[in-house]
Amino acid sequence: MPAETVSVTGWGRTAPSAARLIRPRTYEEAVAAVRDCGVRGGIPRGLGRAYGDAAQNAGGAVWDMTGLDRIHVVDVADGTVLCDAGVSLHRLMEVLLPLGWFVPVTPGTRYVTVGGAIGADIHGKNHHVGGSFARHVLSFELLTADGTIRTVAPGTPLFDATAGGMGLTGVILTATVRLQPVETSLMAVDTERATDLDDLMARLTATDHRHRYSVAWIDLLARGAATGRAVLTRGDHAPLDALPARARSAPLAFRPSRLPPAPAGLPGGLLNRATVGLFNELWYRRAPRARTGELQPLPAFFHPLDGVPHWNRVYGRSGLVQYQFVVGHGHEDTLRRIVDRISAHRCPSFLAVLKRFGEADPGWLSFPRPGWTLALDIPAALPGLGALLDALDEEVAAAGGRVYLAKDSRLRPELLTAMYPRLADFRALRAELDPRGALVSDLARRLAL
Amino acid sequence: MQDAFGLPQSLLVLGGTSEIALATARRLIARRTRTVWLAGRPSAALESAAAELRALGAGVRTVAFDALDPDSHETVLGKVFAEGDIDLVLLAFGVLGDQAHDERAPTAAVRVAQTNYTGAVSAGLVSARALQTQGHGALVVLSSVAGERARRANFIYGSSKAGLDAFAQGLGDALQGTGVHVMVVRPGFVRTRMTAGLPKAPLATTPEEVAAAVELGLRRRSEVVWVPGVLRVVMAALRHAPRGVFRRLPV
C-alpha cells in the first residue's frame, strides 16, 4: 500500500505531527496495515473533524478510513443501514433522506464518518431525548490489534470501550445503525431570546422536553447584566402537512448549498474582540424575540458552518482551540462562574453553544452526562488562554464534570481520572487487547489513555 | 506531546547549567513539563540545578554530555531518546570566551568555536534525527544577536554564533513538514554569570524574559525570536550600517 509521510493536525490546526498516511481500500488492506503498523503504531482517521490530536500519530501510521466508503444495506422497512466506517453522515443523508430516513444523531457538521461518530461517541442537539450516536448502533465490526475482525454488540465491554474510545480499541470497519424516520427534509424551528444565563437555563429546563432538537447560542462577550444572553433554537422534523403546497411535491429534497472555501494563508487575528463582538451583537439582535414554526432546511438548522468549507482557516496560522465541558445538574453555580470568567477574559468566541444533556451514555469514555454542556471556539493565539483553560478545568473537575476528548488539545493529564472514572477499565482492556500498543495516537500519548 | 500551545511534557536541555535554559525549564514545569533531562559536564552545579527543578515537581535526570566530544553525542543522546519521546530539545550550551586573551591564544579561540558551533552542529543533527523519527517535537537553539553582525569587541564568540544561527535556520528549513519545529532564539545582552563583569549593554534582558519569549515562540510556532523584540529592528539597522560607520559605533 502506498504511504506518504505528511504533517497531520486536527480541525483546530494546532500541534502538527508527522505520520505515514495510509488509505486502505479493502478490509484486507486494513488488516495488513494494522499487522504492519511498526513500533509507533497507528490510528484510524475519518474526516479530521476532531479539533485536537485524536487522529494524529507522530512518527507512526495514520489510517485514512475514507477509502472504505460503501453503503451495503439500507433496510427501508425497519430503518437501519449497514455501511463502511468511512461513510460520512453527509453521504448517508444524501442516500437516506429521499427514502424517508435520517441519521439518529448529527453533530454540528455532516462531515464526520460513521467510524469517527462511534469513536468519539458524538452527540447532537437531540441528546436530551436521543442520547449519543453509539446508542443507535446495533453492532459494528472491529479490527483489533491482533489483526482479527470481531463483531461487537451493544452491552459488551468491547462495545462500551470502543464507543467514545477515540479509535484506541481498534479500527471500526462497518457498522449497523438504527435510523430516524422523517416525513420531510425541513425543520420546524422555534426561536427565542434569553436575556441572561439564568433566564436561558430556566427556559431550557422548563421546555426542552417538548422538542426533539434543542441548542442555545450564547454570547460570551456580553458583560454585566447581559452575561450569558442567548438565542435558543429548538426544532423538530416538519411533518408533511406543515409544508406549503408547492413544497409538498419534493418534501425530502436535500440540496445543501456551499460557499467557496475560506482561502489558505489567512492571517491570524481576524477573529478578535472587535469583530466577534460585532458579530455577536448582530446575531443576537437579528434573532427574533420569539418565533415559532419557521421552516428551515436541514443544513441551515444543523450544520450552518458546513456552508463554508475550511472555515477553520479563518483562525489563521496559529489555529483554534475548542473547549467543551459538561457539569452535572446541581452545579449551575460552576457553570455561572465559568461563563463569568470567560466573559471577564474577553475571549473572542463566536457561536459558543450551551446544551442540556439527557441521560449518560454507556461508553466508558463517552462524554455526555446529565447536565449542562458549553462548547466554545477560541483563537489559540489569545494571550493567557492556556492558564485560563487550566483554571476552568479545575472548576469542571471539582464539580464532577469533564471535558470532551474529541475536542481536547491541551488538557492537563492529571485531571483525566477524576473526569473519566471508567478510565482504569479502559486502560486495562487496552492492555489486554493490545499489549504491544499497536493502536496509539498523539491524544493517547499526551493524556496516557 | 506538545499541546495546542506548544507546551512540552518532556524537555531535554543541552547545557544543563545554562541560566537561560533553567529559567525556561522552571517556566515550562509550571505549565506542563513533567520530565526533564539536564545534559552537561558532570558537576556539582548540574546536580544542584537538577535538585532545584525537582523541587518544582518534575522528574529530573542528569546525563553526562560534552559539547567538545561530538563522537559521543550519538550514544549519549540516543540513550535519552530511547527512554521516551522528547517534546522539546533546548540547545543552550555555549561559552563566551575572553576575546582579548583568545586573540593571542588561537587554541582557546578554537575551543569557543568548537563548543558553540561544531558541538552544536553535532548535537543539533543528532537531536533533529531523533525528533524526526518520533515525528514531533521542537528544537530550540539559543543563538545571539552577536551572530547577526560580528563586532570588534567579540568577533570570536560572534562568528561562532553566526555559524550556529545559519546552521539552525537551514536545519529548520530541512525539517519542514516532518512535524519538527526549529526555533532560533536571538537574545541581546542577557544578565547572567556568563556576562557578569562585562559593561552593561543597551536593551539588556534577563533569563526570565528569554524564557517568556521562548514560551510565546512555541505557542506561535515562530522560527526566529528576538529578545527583546525591538532588537529585530535595531539589528536590521545595524546590519546594514556601512562598515566604516559600524566600526566606530560604541556597540
Automatic annotation (TrEMBL), chain A:
Query: Pfam families per the record?
Result: ALO, FAD_binding_4
One GO MF annotation is: FAD binding
Question: What superkingdom does the record give?
Answer: Bacteria
Q: Which UniProt keywords apply?
A: Oxidoreductase
What the entry lists under SUPFAM superfamilies is as follows: FAD-binding/transporter-associated domain-like (SSF56176)
Q: Does the keyword Oxidoreductase apply?
A: yes
Provide GO CC annotations from the record.
membrane
What sections of the sequence does the record tag as coiled-coil?
Answer: none
Residue intervals of the FAD-binding PCMH-type domain: 14-182
Q: Which PROSITE patterns match?
A: FAD_PCMH
Does the record bear Oxidoreductase in its keywords? yes
- Fetch the InterPro entries from UniProt: ALO_C, FAD-bd_PCMH, FAD-bd_PCMH-like_sf, FAD-bd_PCMH_sub2, FAD_lactone_oxidase-like, Oxid_FAD_bind_N, Vanillyl_alc_oxidase_C-sub2
Could you tell me what this protein is called?
Decaprenylphosphoryl-beta-D-ribose oxidase
From TrEMBL, chain B:
Q: Does the keyword Oxidoreductase apply?
A: yes
**Any one Gene Ontology molecular-function term assigned to this protein's record:** oxidoreductase activity
Which InterPro entries does UniProt cross-reference here? Answer: NAD(P)-bd_dom_sf, Sc_DH/Rdtase_CS, SDR_fam
The keyword Oxidoreductase is assigned to this record: yes
PROSITE patterns attached to this UniProt entry: ADH_SHORT (PS00061)
Which family is this sequence assigned to?
Belongs to the short-chain dehydrogenases/reductases (SDR) family.
Q: Which PANTHER family match?
A: 5-KETO-D-GLUCONATE 5-REDUCTASE (PTHR43669), DECAPRENYLPHOSPHORYL-2-KETO-BETA-D-ERYTHRO-PENTOSE REDUCTASE (PTHR43669:SF6)
Q: What is this protein's name?
A: Short-chain dehydrogenase
Organism name:
Streptomyces griseoruber
